[in-house]
């Protein structure tokens, strides 16, 4: 199998290293592998390998991500060098400056931290989890699980913040087409 290695310009690499949302579980719960990659991956990725039907993947957040990729300059899964988020695509097409791209990343990280902080405040859980895992955990709480109206309001506020953040992720990082589809669907509902 031929390795897919994509060498990005340094200014694009700087954005990727600054961000990491595709590695830390903010954008996705898993990363898809190419057929046959399993068995030739770094150890920690092999340990989180899974297969469902014909899809092979590893769970995110990546064990090699610690504020930034710790194996960025080493052999890793093809998706790690091939994935290009919407922000990176826009930057490479000169639709956004590097300064503005960095501001988007920093503001998204700050907003995500506000969500984590509110989550910890509500549930008293003092451990780090990915945004995707937070969404799954939050989904376990029904709308009326508590008789405590103040707690219900706090949980609803957290859900609203998560929805806003997810919309920002779709618009800025996932795909403009998905964002436009989301907007047109919501307009049809009104």
From TrEMBL:
Domain of life: Bacteria
Listed name of the protein: YkgJ family cysteine cluster protein
Lineage: Bacteria, Pseudomonadati, Bacteroidota, Cytophagia, Cytophagales
